[in-house]
């Protein structure tokens, strides 16, 4: 299966908004370096915030596509050829790299920009390592900086994550090598190219903070920010405190908000559910009253409980199962990786294995309900192309999944047990089928069961930040499939006709942002995620509309797609948060208790009235 990119109206509209907002080129400048062959030509109002552009696009609507095509557009129209893409994390960087370098993206853009190619240079941790006693620049950096305008058919792109951008390696100037005939600092060499900087996930680069200072150090002529979430600023104190979103110019130059995204059928609908929990257990919650590097204070009613680093939550309440301690540090984390914040609520029962097993079982029911519909989908004439169905699990502990000493963790074992039971029941239902599509589905299920029971199963896989340092070949293959092999994950069979049965993915927090797959139909959270932004980001991993086995992207008119989002009982107010996000984007303020069809129609009517 090959993914087929299409030109979608909302993406074309975003590009038109960028073109309208672009300040234009400074052709009248008397700058003696205006024609410097290693740098972009001069842009009007360069280095000034009034030239910068904000593009707000909801998760799953294709912002990576838009900013990639924007680079082609700015190169074709204005001769701009050096761009820096700044992303928050290595996982987002890998997702961006995978898209830009994919065959399907290259083929798509070649249809619009003939004989033009993107040369992507990616800087990773370790690229600045000293060799033979000499400190040299990475080849990727040198190639980007020293590329010239003379190659008129090539766009130079440098892709870097914020940790790498903030590192000493980027800012020091004691290298045994020079760039551009004398520059010994990587960040200053980049600045000399007068780049256009693209910021992905702008809420992670708030103005006035250290990571934005790294952006400014590159001296971009123009900054274009793309995201569903933008930084917030506050002014005043107490009752006079005012919080607002920090946009260049006060508002985004293009705004595809939550209302428009759902109204235009650009993302899946969402079904939110929680596992059953006795009311008594659900009401037994602890509030994070204070969190410090060496101390955690929980409160329940008028009682307070203090925990130091290394002390177990089970000492406060035996319901906190799993030998979880307070790890502290600047991230204020528990030993399972959960970052704590003031006023966060913790329900001991949600840490229990029995509770997490219930979520797994419920998620598998949701998965196979969607999978049957997507595999067996009919149309008026014949069976329509099948849709590969994927599920994503967020868990709180890598050891519960990977285990130790080549032994699987309890969660992986329990997942296999539950999956085996459900597969056997489904196979029993379809093994006497007469319909060819049902026979095919039975064969797929049987192949899944055989793989699950084999030594090298390929039905489920995990990706965790710790995996990047693993020497295990099987783990690295899993990571490659999840991060880079989107087409393989979306395909039913390999080139030899064998079933590709991998469709269950596990992660901790690494895939919370940046990564997505259009065919995720179930997201199950076996742990809380902390901040509200994190929760929004997690549901965003499954919002994209699916593609079928031919690579065709389905719109909601062709196939009504919904995402099942299973969250812990401690996050039962999250549905109202999603409604609140929509309400905040709307010109009409609604009662957040319920979002009815009439309310949605009211929003749509107001939106249409306000459109030019």
Describe this entry's structure for a reader.
The chain is of the alpha/beta class. It has 4 domains: 42-127 and 135-263, 3-Layer(aba) Sandwich (Rossmann fold); 269-275 and 351-572, 3-Layer(aba) Sandwich (Rossmann fold), CATH 3.40.50; 286-346, no CATH class; 577-612, no CATH class. It is 34% helix and 17% strand. The protein is built from 20 helices and 21 strands. The protein is globular and about 75 Å long. The protein starts with 8 loop residues before the first helix and ends with a helix.
Fold blueprint:
Elements: H1 9-21, E1 53-57, H2 63-78, E2 82-87, H3 90-101, H4 103-110, E3 117-122, H5 139-146, E4 154-161, H6 162-166, H7 168-171, H8 186-191, E5 196-200, H9 210-217, E6 222-227, E7 232-235, E8 242-245, E9 254-256, H10 258-263, E10 269-273, H11 279-282, E11 286-291, E12 295-300, E13 303-308, E14 326-328, E15 333-334, E16 345-346, H12 353-375, E17 390-394, H13 398-402, H14 410-430, H15 436-452, E18 460-463, H16 473-484, H17 486-490, E19 504-507, E20 520-525, H18 532-540, E21 562-566, H19 574-585, H20 597-610
Parallel strand pairs: 1-6, 1-9, 2-4, 2-5, 3-4, 5-6, 10-21, 17-19, 17-20, 18-19, 20-21
Antiparallel strand pairs: 7-8, 11-12, 11-16, 12-13, 14-15
Helix pairs in contact: 1-2, 12-14, 14-15
Put the structure in a nutshell.
34% of the residues lie in helices and 17% in strands.
Overall structural class, as computed from helix and strand content, comes to alpha/beta
Computed Rg:
26 Å
Helix content: 25-40%
Distance between the termini: 41 Å
- What CATH architecture of the largest domain would you give? 3-Layer(aba) Sandwich
Fold-level CATH name of the largest domain? Rossmann fold
Strand count, sense and closure of the main sheet?
A: 7 strands, parallel
CATH classification, class level of the largest domain: Alpha Beta
Overall geometry: globular
Number of strands: 21
- Which strand order spans the largest sheet, edge to edge or round the barrel? 3-4-2-5-6-1-9
Q: How many helix segments?
A: 20
The average pLDDT score comes to: 85
Number of domains: 4
Ranges where pLDDT stays below 50 over 5 or more residues in a row are 586-595, 603-612
The share of residues in extended strands comes to: 15-25%
């Amino acid at each position: 299966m090959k993914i087929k990119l299409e030109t979608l109206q909302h993406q074309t509209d975003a590009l038109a908004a960028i073109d309208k907002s672009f300040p234009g080129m400074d052709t009248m400048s008397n700058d003696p370096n205006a024609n410097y062959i290693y740098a972009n030509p001069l842009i009007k109002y360069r280095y000034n915030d009034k030239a910068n552009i904000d593009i707000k696009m909801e998760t799953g609507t294709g912002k990576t596509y838009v900013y990639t095509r924007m680079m082609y557009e700015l190169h074709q129209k204005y001769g701009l050829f050096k761009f820096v893409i700044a992303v928050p994390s290595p996982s987002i960087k890998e997702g961006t790299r995978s898209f830009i370098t994919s065959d399907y993206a290259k083929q798509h853009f070649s249809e619009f920009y003939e004989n033009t190619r993107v040369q992507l240079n990616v800087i990773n941790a370790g690229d600045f390592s000293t060799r033979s006693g000499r400190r040299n620049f990475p080849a990727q950096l040198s190639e980007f900086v020293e590329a010239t305008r003379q190659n008129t058919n090539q766009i130079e792109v440098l892709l870097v994550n914020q940790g790498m951008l903030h590192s000493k390696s980027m800012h020091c100037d004691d290298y045994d090598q020079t760039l551009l005939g004398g520059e010994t600092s990587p960040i200053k060499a980049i600045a000399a190219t007068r780049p256009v900087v693209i910021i992905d996930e702008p809420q992670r680069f708030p103005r006035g903070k250290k990571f934005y200072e790294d952006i400014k150090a590159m001296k971009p002529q123009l900054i274009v920010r793309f995201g569903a979430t933008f930084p917030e600023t506050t002014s005043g104190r107490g009752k006079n405190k005012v919080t607002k979103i920090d946009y260049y110019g006060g508002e985004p130059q293009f705004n595809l908000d939550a209302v428009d995204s759902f109204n235009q059928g650009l993302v899946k609908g969402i079904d939110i559910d929680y596992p059953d929990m006795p009311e008594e257990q659900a009401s037994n919650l602890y509030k994070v009253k204070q969190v410090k590097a060496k101390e955690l204070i929980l409160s329940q009613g008028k009682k307070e409980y203090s925990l130091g680093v290394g002390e177990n939550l089970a000492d406060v309440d035996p319901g906190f199962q799993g030998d979880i301690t307070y790890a502290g540090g600047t991230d204020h984390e528990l030993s399972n990786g959960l970052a704590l914040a003031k006023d966060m609520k913790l329900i001991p029962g949600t840490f229990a294995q029995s509770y997490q097993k219930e979520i797994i079982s419920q998620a598998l029911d949701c998965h196979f309900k969607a999978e049957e519909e997507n595999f067996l989908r009919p149309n008026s004439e014949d069976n329509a192309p099948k849709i590969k169905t994927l599920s994503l699990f967020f868990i709180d502990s890598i050891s519960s999944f990977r285990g130790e000493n080549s032994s699987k963790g309890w969660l992986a074992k329990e997942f296999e047990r539950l999956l085996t039971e459900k597969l056997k029941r489904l196979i029993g239902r379809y093994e006497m089928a007469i319909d060819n599509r049902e026979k095919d589905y039975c064969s797929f299920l049987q192949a899944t069961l055989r793989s699950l029971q084999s030594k090298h199963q390929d039905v489920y896989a995990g990706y965790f930040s710790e995996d990047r340092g693993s020497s295990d070949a099987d783990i690295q293959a899993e990571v490659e499939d999840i991060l880079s092999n989107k087409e393989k994950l979306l395909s039913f069979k390999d080139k030899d006709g064998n079933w590709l049965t991998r469709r269950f993915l596990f992660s901790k927090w690494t895939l919370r942002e940046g990564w997505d797959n259009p065919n995720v139909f179930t997201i199950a959270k076996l742990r809380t995620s902390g901040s509200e932004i994190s929760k929004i980001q997690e549901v965003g991993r499954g919002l994209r509309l699916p593609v079928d086995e031919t690579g065709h992207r389905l719109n909601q008119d062709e196939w009504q797609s919904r995402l099942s989002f299973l969250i812990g009982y401690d996050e039962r107010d999250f549905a109202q948060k999603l409604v609140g996000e929509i309400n905040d984007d709307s010109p009409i303020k609604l009662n957040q208790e319920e979002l009815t069809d009439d309310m949605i129609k009211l929003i749509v009517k107001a939106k249409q009235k306000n459109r030019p």
